[in-house]
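hey so i finally got around to running the thing on that chain from the lab meeting. sorry it took forever, my laptop kept dying and i had to restart like 3 times. anyway pasting the input first so we r on the same page abt which one it is
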Amino acid sequence: MNLQGHSGYITSLGLGRQSEYLARPPATMCYIAVDGFILVTPERPDHLFGNVWVFPEPEGPSALRRRAHRAKGLGIALGMSQDPALAWESSKSLKVPSWVQSEASALGYDVEVAQVMTLDPDSLPIQDERDHAKVKMRLATTDADWISVQAMPGIQDTFGGHRDLRSWFLSERRKIVQTGQGQLWVAEHQSSIVAACFVFRDRQLVRLDQLIVHPRMRNRGLGSYVISELSKGFSDCIVVMEPTAGSWRSAMYYKVGYRPVGVAVTLFAST
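ok and heres what got predicted. didnt touch it at all, straight out
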């Protein structure tokens, strides 16, 4: 079942989840449940980016246990090789209740927490263009551009040593870009690509995703410059980013005008 046309339903589950849907590889199956929907991503070398059941924030440990039990049943019924991840978003608090970690561990899940941050246009910093006068921002348009981004050392921060996963993920995102629903922006310095960032948009909702900065260009303000330059073009939109809570990206996005509005929690079955 395709989720197109269910944008109101997605919105009810959180701004971050709605924007994440724009950026994820197209799902081969979307199963609408009473209290959420389950997305099954195409064949991939790792299930980190697929097989996700999204639902409203559980009220407490017993509610989470019920959903975890149901998720296993859904996984079996839908023929999944691994239990689906569990995901929800909370705009009530910027912190995850302490019981979530303990309950998730007892159920056999690892917890990943991201901040849902939106752009406050009034907080965008004034950039000194002289600091990055030799940096050129442009759209990635050629095979060579995509190959350069895939080979960039900085991308290993996201995928570690999983070369197959990195290749698959970028190829799936390129499909989204080719449909006109996304863009890949790159920053060039001395004719080499030294940074990149994806932009996904649907009407007034924009998601900036997967900022990559070459290691030799870090600690020079390049990441901040890239995000600031891209954000300027969407001051009339709701711009969302979802950095891992407590990460350097989270701190950097705050400096360039993004403010936390909630948290997104994902539970992955422990391997």
